[in-house]
Automatic annotation (TrEMBL):
Annotated transmembrane regions: 12-33, 53-73, 93-113, 133-150, 243-271, 283-300, 401-422, 434-458
Keywords attached to this entry: Membrane, Transmembrane, Transmembrane helix
Domain of life: Bacteria
Protein name per its UniProtKB record: O-antigen ligase-like membrane protein
Native source species: Chitinophaga tropicalis
Amino acid sequence: MNVIYNVLISNNLYVEVFRETMPLVISAALLYLHYKGRITALETILYAFAAEAYTMLIIGPTFTATFFVSIVFMVEQGHRLITGQLYVQRKYLLLLLLPALSNIAIFFIIQLYKDPFYYPEGKQTAFYLRPLYFYFKLYLPLFAIGAKLIQEKEQLSFEFFSEVMKRIARFSLMIVILQVSCQYAFRSEVLGEILGLQRRYLQEQASSMLSLRVQALFAEPKVFSAFLSLCVPLYIKDRQYWMAGVCVVMGVMTISQTFWINVFAAGITYLLTSVLSSTRLKILSTLGIIIGLFMIVAASKDYFIKMYAKNQHNTMYELIFKRSVYRYDNEVWQKDNVVLGMPLQRDMELPVVDFLRDQPYLLISGYGAGNSTFIPAQYFFGQMNYENRVNGVGGHNLNMRWFYILAEFGIFSLFIFFFTLTQTRQDITPFESSYLAFIWICFFFSQIDLFLIIIALLCTFGEEEESVTDYKMISYQ
């Protein structure tokens, strides 16, 4: 645990104090502007999300500006619910109850059938209490964000969302320029950390000029790459091709495979499956095409690995293919990590897949919200976090969010989330319908829960909802 923690924190005490203070400063400033009526709830939460490079690691890596803003929104919406100003539709009430239903199912499975979990130092009580912590810290705040956005539905539109996204992208461009400058011109690690770069990526950069992974002020390069991929269709729609190209360049500089997959998904969604009238059919068709192409690549992986070996000193090969080759190459690891053609991360998705392969009945209920800590440690053998697993320290977060829902809540919950959050109003435009499909595809590969909620709301509530007086809560985690 100390090794991982030391990689995350700065060597400079003053820089670390600055970084850990910023979440409170940013969230306080945003909430002040919001409650003064200067920015909307949508702007507040998106600006906070775009500043997650700063975290209060002394408490935990998830204590960011987004966390503090969402907690304030949750308290506000809780007060409205208690005082009768907030009502919950039946279908969204079911989403609220899913974690409880999952944990009830897990309880009966453990008591009546089989207990496959590992409880370090007798932490069996924590197995039942951890889902409550997960529910109030992560799950419920997302419902509050949804309710808060709907209360400002007269200001909530796809066009407004698009403008906020592009505003953040332009600001991120300036931060990226500063990050690159401070590393290549000033060679200052301290300045890079102040500007949001994480120390572990700065250490990688020291060995190669092409290893600097820009992230603007986002939590990680892969999160920044996912955000940029969501901006590209918005810029193309408004014929702002120059900025679309800038987003692509910044996406390349994140050195994240997520960016290329998402951009490719956008092309399939808007060029091939956009003719389909059903949003759900667009999602399933696009995902089917992508998985099919992954399987073709996996079948030809030896050829691609040899091709990269011959061209590994080429700049474009280094930027685009290096991480993909690492994912597919099992010569060192001697363990197949390819599922449906997709190379899973060996320290994240693969241990969970192996666990569920051995315990397939858990696909019905999931292993319980936040209970990944109790997956037996042997599934993580050979990974940096193995000792933490043995000691029951830390949690486990899956970036592939469809799989995350399946693992945490079970297959029935995944179906409920999908069918609930793909309902759209009748007057939705073809571009918005395709964008919702695109978000769902990106959600398969990326941790973009907040964006899924926002787009689902935009595609559900419109002018025809103006006469509705009861506020509706919607969310996912």
